């Protein structure tokens, strides 16, 4: 814990450091204080600044320096002219000029404002940034009635500044000023150039003062391709129904080119606007136009919400519903999905719609299609939807049943509907874990309904724990099959427990637990609540929106609690919690004795003695893009422009095995994964920017990469830059990202330049190849890896990937 949760403060002194002269400022004159602002000692500068600011201000706020007499008075009282001269003297050190600027800026007088603004054009970015930060001081915003302290032309220039902190400071200054139409246009023009999250967040903060005005500027922009993130952040902030109506009228008049922005705004208004505007003739015409346009699916929920009586759009809504009904039978699953999602929004307009959507879920569509529909139905919160899902539960495929169960159990009335329908399907298919969740549901009325019902449906066998354990214990002397036990463990236990590096961390880790012997472990499996580790007691949490969440407490702080369950980790804000109750029970369900004596013996044999392998190589053959026998970066004909391995097959680097594929044994003649990069016209520029690699569901805690090089890579100078991102997609749908940089993990393939995040290995006949590894945050079954280049000049190259299993 000490290494992970507590810091250490170190003071490092240079053995040849020179002592600086420290001036006693207690009796210093104004001139001496101003001179001290040029000291290289920060403490001395700050002390001088404080003493100068503590000197009395000779003028009341709001006065202007109109006469030489007043200027002389200012100089006499706190060295005004000397400080101003220092602030604007480009020959002085920036830290000294910044100290002078802050003294000028903190003097509560409008008269000084025009004096320091020339620093906004200074050659030093540190000076420009601090001059901008002065505009945030309250007395300036009051003095200017909220108008921006600099001119529009200067602001536009500062937003395009070459220094990112200067751009950020300009946005912060704007956030405390009024946004005008011209300012909004400047903000929109600058948005594509804001290249980090800090700047984009500051831009959103500034724009949030008047989101309608900035959204209008976005719609009027000559180029809207990159504006979607800004529009997505601002659209939910619209709260005035009349502003929303005006914006929708404007949307209807915009060309098809801005359809992505239209969809974002319309969808957000449908979800977030609490009060519907009055349907005027212009608004009705605009909504009709949008319903007949390519963005009709986004406009439709808004129309239904705003036109409560549906008197104005009854005919067109009915026509759209019939069109979507036809599309439900389309050959394209994408079209069918869009139609089903649209019909969900229309479910209240006609009785046939909800059954038709549920029929699509119960059909032979792909699980992905069905889960999308289930998620959309769940988001409605409609009681009738929950009843319909429960009624149709038995018709769903097992993967879709799992998603539907997670939806139904979050709302009491939906869970009761599932219990009412329990006799229409085999309730045991829910599995021990979900049956236990029904029995211990945080709503006592649900739990009271579930327990006798499940006892009735599942039979009395689950009640006789002692007899069952005694009977099973009699067979423990018969040897089990560890291989079969491993299969059973993976299917039934690894979703919660970790054994030798494999499995999840929901329940206690089982590595080394074999020392307790099979008899003790059998009792823990069959009767998990006989003794519960306090760290793994299950909690029920009800949130303010009426949803229930169950799991063990993984960690918490004053603002949030993280619970861990079969669904993974979920963070819940403390402010959103209505109640939190300990069940006093383990999250591990009861009923595993139903696996039978032989299966339990096999699991115990595996638990008590496993020899799981440590590594698994990842099969990259389906995604290889380049042939090492040819050039791989500039053009195929340049045969030296590649990675020539000395040998192929299983190569050992330290203790890690890598499978380096020979081009003769690959699926398509390729044996290297080169992702998009390089100048236009190069071979690398034609490579895919993104590939997906199926892993098949095994668990890993670390990924090892053989590659670490790129065409047009790091040459030993300049700052590191993004080069490749790896997304780990787990079977449960959760993801994790690993980001790699050119200059940290990656280096140039041709020039043997070292970088700190990887190690060069001697596997090539020339040039270089490197290895590096990254730990994974989760220990869960991995569905696939997604490798994606940053799309810049560097073309990241990977020869092999190995997953470490424990």
Task: Write a structural description.
This protein is α+β, with helices and mostly antiparallel strands and 806 residues long. Helices cover 40% and strands 15% of the residues. Strand 9 and strand 10 (656-660) form a beta hairpin. Helix 2 (30-36) packs antiparallel against helix 3. The longest helix is centred in the middle third of the chain and has 15 residues, at 444-458. The radius of gyration is 33 Å and the shape is globular.
Task: Spell out the key features of this protein.
single chain; alpha+beta; five-stranded antiparallel β-sheet; 22 strands
Shape summary? globular
What's the rounded overall pLDDT mean?
81
Widest beta sheet: strand line-up? 6-5-4-3-7
Global structural class: alpha+beta
Radius of gyration: 33 Å
**Low confidence ranges:** 61-65, 142-146
Ends distance: 21 Å
List how many beta strands DSSP finds: 22
The percentage helix is 40-55%
**How many separate helices?**
32
Residue fraction in strands: 5-15%
Largest sheet: 5 strands, antiparallel
């Amino acid at each position: 814990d000490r290494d992970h949760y507590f810091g250490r403060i170190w003071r490092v002194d240079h053995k040849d450091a020179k002592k600086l002269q420290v001036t006693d400022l207690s009796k210093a004159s104004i001139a001496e204080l101003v001179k001290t602002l040029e000291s290289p000692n920060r403490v001395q500068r700050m002390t001088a600044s404080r003493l100068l600011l503590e000197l009395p201000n000779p003028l009341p706020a709001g006065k202007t320096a109109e006469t030489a007499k007043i200027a002389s008075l200012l100089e006499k009282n706190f060295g005004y002219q000397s400080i101003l001269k220092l602030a604007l003297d480009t020959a002085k050190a920036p830290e000294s000029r910044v100290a002078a600027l802050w003294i000028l800026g903190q003097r509560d007088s409008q008269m000084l404002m025009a004096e320091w603004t020339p620093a906004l054009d200074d050659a030093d970015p540190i000076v420009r940034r601090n001059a901008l930060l002065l505009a945030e001081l309250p007395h300036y915003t009051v003095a200017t009635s909220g108008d921006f302290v600099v001119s529009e032309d200067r602001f536009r220039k500062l937003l395009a500044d070459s220094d990112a902190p200067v751009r950020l400071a300009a946005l912060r200054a704007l956030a405390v000023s009024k946004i005008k139409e011209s300012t909004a246009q400047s903000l929109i023009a600058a948005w594509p150039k804001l290249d980090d999250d800090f700047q984009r967040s500051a831009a959103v903060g500034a724009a949030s003062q008047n989101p309608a005005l900035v959204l209008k500027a976005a719609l009027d922009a000559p180029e809207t391709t990159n504006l979607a993130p800004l529009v997505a952040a601002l659209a939910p902030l619209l709260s005035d129904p009349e502003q929303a109506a005006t914006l929708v009228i404007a949307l209807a008049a915009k060309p098809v080119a801005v359809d992505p922005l239209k969809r974002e705004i319309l969808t957000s208004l449908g979800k977030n606007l609490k009060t519907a505007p009055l349907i005027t003739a212009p608004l009705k015409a605009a909504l009709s136009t949008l319903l007949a346009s390519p963005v009709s699916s986004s406009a439709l929920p808004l129309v239904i919400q705003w036109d409560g009586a549906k008197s104005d759009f009854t005919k067109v809504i009915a026509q759209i519903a019939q069109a979507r009904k036809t599309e439900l039978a389309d050959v394209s699953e994408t079209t069918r999905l869009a139609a089903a999602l649209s019909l969900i929004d229309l479910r209240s307009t006609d009785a046939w719609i909800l059954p038709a959507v549920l029929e699509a879920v119960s059909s032979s569509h792909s699980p992905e299609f069905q889960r999308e529909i289930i998620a959309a139905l769940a988001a409605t919160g409609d009681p009738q939807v929950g009843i319909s899902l429960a009624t149709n539960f038995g018709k769903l495929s097992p993967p879709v049943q799992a998603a539907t169960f997670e939806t139904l159990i979050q709302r009491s009335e939906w869970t009761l509907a599932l219990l009412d329908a329990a006799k229409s399907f085999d309730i045991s298919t829910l599995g021990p874990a979900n049956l236990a969740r029904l029995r211990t549901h945080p709503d006592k009325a649900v739990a009271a309904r579930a327990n006798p019902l499940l006892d009735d449906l599942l039979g009395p066998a689950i009640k006789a724990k002692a007899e069952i354990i005694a009977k099973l214990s009699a067979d423990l002397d018969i040897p089990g099959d560890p291989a079969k036990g491993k299969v059973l463990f993976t299917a039934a236990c690894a979703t919660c427990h970790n054994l030798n590096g494999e499995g999840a961390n929901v329940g206690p880790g089982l590595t080394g637990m074999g020392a307790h012997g099979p008899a003790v472990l059998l009792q823990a499996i069959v009767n998990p609540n006989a003794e519960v580790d306090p760290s793994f007691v299950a909690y029920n949490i009800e949130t303010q929106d009426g949803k229930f969440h169950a799991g063990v407490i993984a960690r918490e702080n004053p603002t949030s609690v993280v619970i861990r369950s079969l669904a993974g980790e979920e963070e819940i804000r403390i402010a959103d919690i209505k109640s939190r109750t300990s069940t006093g029970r383990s999250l591990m369900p009861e009923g595993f004795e139903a696996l039978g004596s032989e299966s339990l013996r096999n699991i115990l044999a595996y638990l008590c003695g496993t020899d799981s392998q440590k590594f698994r190589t990842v099969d990259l053959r389906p995604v290889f893009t380049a042939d090492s026998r040819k050039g791989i970066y500039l053009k195929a004909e340049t045969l030296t422009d590649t990675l020539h391995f000395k040998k192929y097959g299983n190569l050992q680097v330290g203790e890690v095995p890598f499978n380096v594929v020979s081009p003769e044994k690959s699926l398509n003649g390729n044996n290297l994964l080169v992702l998009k990069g390089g100048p236009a016209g190069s071979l690398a520029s034609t490579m895919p920017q993104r590939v997906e690699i199926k892993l098949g569901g095994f668990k890993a805690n670390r990924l090892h990469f053989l590659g670490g090089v790129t065409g047009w890579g790091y040459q030993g100078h300049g700052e590191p830059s993004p080069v490749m991102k790896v997304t780990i997609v787990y079977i449960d749908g959760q993801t994790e990202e690993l980001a790699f940089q050119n200059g940290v993990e990656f280096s140039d393939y041709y020039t043997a330049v070292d970088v700190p995040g990887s190690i060069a290995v001697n596997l090539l006949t020339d040039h270089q190849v490197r290895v590096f590894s990254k730990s994974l945050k989760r220990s869960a079954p991995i569905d696939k890896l997604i490798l994606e280049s940053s799309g810049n000049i560097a073309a990241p190259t990977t020869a092999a990937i190995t997953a470490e299993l424990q």
